[in-house]
Amino acid sequence: MEAVETASRSTSRSLRRVGILYDERMCRHHTPDDEPHPENPNRIRAIWNKLQSAGISQRCEVLSAKEAEDKYILSVHGKSHVDLIRNISSQQYNSRRNRIASKLNSIYLNEGSSEAAYLAAGSVIEVAKRVAKGELDSAFAIVRPPGHHAEHDEAMGFCLFNNVAIATNFLLNEKELGINKILIVDWDVHHGNGTQKTFWKDPRVLFFSVHRHEFGSFYPSNDDGDYTMIGEGPGAGYNINVPWENGRCGDADYLAVWDHILIPVAKQFNPDMILISAGFDAAVGDPLGGCCVTPYGYAMLLRKLMDFARGKIVLALEGGYNLASISNSALACMEVLLDEKIVTGSTEAYPFESTWRVIQVVRQELKAFWSVLADEVPTKLISQKAPIPVKKILISSCDSEAEDVEELLQEVIRPLSTLRVDEDCRVLAESASVSWRSDLSNIDIWYATFGSNMWKPRFLFYIEGGQVDGMQKLCSGSMDKRPPKEILWKIFPHRLFFGRESTRTWGLGGVAFLHPESKNEDIVHMCLYRITLEQFNDVLHQENISSYDMSSPLFDLTSLDCVKEKGSINLEAVKKGWYHNVVYLGMERDIPILTMTCDLSDIENFKSGKVPLHAPSEDYANTLVKGLVEGGQLSEEEAVSYIKEAAAKPL
Ligand code: Q9C
Ligand code: ZN
Q1: Parallel, antiparallel, or unpaired: how do β-strands 581-588 and 511-518 relate?
Q2: What is the mean pLDDT of residues 608-619?
Q3: Does the pLDDT value for residue 550 go beyond 50?
Q4: Gene3D superfamilies, per this entry (predicted)?
Q5: What pLDDT sits at residue 393?
Q6: What is the pTM of this model?
Q7: Mind listing the pLDDT tens digit for each residue in 499-540?
Q8: How far is CA 453 from CA 233, 317, 355, 402, 419, in A?
């Protein structure tokens, strides 16, 4: 820090003393073989480079990282967890490291992980201490690995130590700092489950988290992030969750939550200091978040918090996976901390109807603890709502269709009838989808087919779009219309069978399914198409007709990691489709092989007869035979008996 106290810099330095911490050593935590992963070293490099080239870091006090001492980490984590994270990077763990990581939920580990974890935690302590002492007005710690998912005895969700929770306990325990009440604002798109648990019964810490929840289906996929989780004992009322019911939330939604929940409560709580779990994965363009907060939005959210705790604010990076989005969002926040730009402007968009509903239930739940929440939200405000944007309505159906087409039409048509086109959000949703598309268009996978898609002309409709001869339905095709780069055939130890009584596309008769589990006595012929992960998403979407808007991918890089680890993954967003279960079948020339089929609960329903097993129609069986014969796999006789056998054998 002293090194940057040069005369030229101090003249251009802001009146506000703002700290910024970056340390390249935190880049040494990465996937073992540098496989692609959203939580990668370039995240913090991108932010740092952006702040340097925008001249921001030059106006700040630049700090470097310090490793946290065990005694501080132990205020949040158990001894066995701390021991594990300390030792995990040592040579003795070389052979066990990957196995340990694979048993954890969304975690990778390498030789650099221990040091990075200690530095991330120590860095947030370091900046928080300086802000508490008044050496700095505010600060931003550009750290990784992130922290807010890490629990007492568990690393998860890309988090090893809970950096913000550790710094919070540090501040509270160093009595001479005079910090007795801390507000933690967690605006990462995911729920801060680890932080919530740490301070569950602690009234000195008001934990506020706004996150995608979708009734418990969004990561970390449980009820911890529900609005009913308000803390316990002396901590009751000091835990506030704002769970989004849907993605696509943007500036208007976040600002409404600030104005009607967080800001009034912050006023009443009157914190001595504010720590922000500043993930930028709710930013427009994020591949995991699916929300659309702009840099201007983040600036507003932060600006509104600067009125409390005499501006003593620390931002600690959590998630955020689009390099451009996180850099621009961080830059906007730094400009607010430096207080050199007045944040002006307004959002044209209105909050979603669901946003007002959530605001109302949260206020209801907490009004006994916070008198500022007692009044009803004025109906004049609530009536200003945006419809759910429906970008494209896709009623195509191929082997599959929604369980109940009526229900789907209801879902799609109802919001349309009240549609007041919201240009802003539409544009935002589109740029979000553009960014995941370009990210996933560079990654190849093998899409392994066992049904009518084995016949190449039939499969090409999912890519090129159009209507195949004799088929009832039109396919929209993929956005990227390049044909498969390669085609090859393989045999797998899986069971092929035919189920359902009739389908819209093929009429009476069953259609092909693959048992998601392998069994050695069974074989299935599969045709593998080498396509991009972006195209695979479009195929998934068409195979599982749904109203999902594709502003974020159904199956992203994290899902890919997850399916490699777990073997299969159920896609919540298309759970009504028959092929919503993505199964990993191994690697072929370093490229993963994926297929899509039903899940194990569907298998149970087929077994019990709740859903019938059924031989395929002649048309459908012929398409499969054509696929196998034209693909050079079987003679016509062999293909016919292969299908017959699969249709006749009991499950
Ligand atoms: N289908 C942070 O943003 N996703 N962590 C697993 C499994 C894990 C995100 C998806 C997302 C963790 C700090
Ligand atoms: Zn996150």
Answers
A1: unpaired
A2: 94
A3: yes
A4: Gamma-glutamyl cyclotransferase-like (3.10.490.10), Histone deacetylase domain (3.40.800.20)
A5: 29
A6: 0.63
A7: 999 887 788 899 999 999 999 899 999 999 999 999 999 999
A8: 58, 44, 41, 19, 37
Cα 106 to ligand 1 centre (Å): 6
Q: How confident is the model at residue 381 (pLDDT cuts 50, 70, 90)?
A: confident
Task: Please provide residue 301's backbone torsions phi and psi, each rounded to the nearest 5 degrees.
Answer: -60, -45
Q: pLDDT digits over 207-266, tens only? A: 999 999 999 999 999 999 999 999 999 999 999 999 999 988 999 999 999 999 999 999
Please, are residues 531 and 463 in contact by the beta-carbon 8 Å criterion?
A: yes
* Closest atom, ligand 1, to C-alpha of 157: 12
How far is Cα 289 from Cα 283, in angstroms, rounded to an integer? 7
Which one of 105, 144, 148, 149 would you pick to mutate in the ligand 1 pocket, going by the greatest count of ligand atoms within 8 A of its CB? 149
Active-site residue flag, 29: no
Q: Is any ligand 1 atom within 6 A of the Cβ of residue 318? A: yes
Following DSSP, what letter does each residue of 357-373 receive, concatenated? HHHHHHHHHHTTT-GGG
The beta-strand segments (E) located in 500-573 are 502-503, 507-508, 511-518, 524-532, 568-570
E-assigned strands of 342-501?
Answer: 444-449, 487-492, 494-499
Q: Is the pLDDT of residue 374 over 90?
A: yes
Q: How far apart are the first and last CA of the chain?
A: 69
Tell me how far the alpha carbon of residue 148 lies from the centroid of ligand 2, in angstroms. 8
Measured from the CB, is residue 106 less than 6 Å from ligand 1? Answer: yes
| Residue of 81, 149, 213, 515 with catalytic role | 149
219 C-beta closer than 6 A to ligand 1: yes
Q: Quick check: 475 and 398 in contact, CB under 8 A?
A: yes
pLDDT over 90 percentage in the chain: 77
- β-pairing, 182-186 vs 273-278, is parallel
Tokens of 559: 């899902």
Q: Ligand 1: which of 107, 160, 288, 559 to mutate, judged by most atoms within 8 Å of the beta carbon?
A: 288
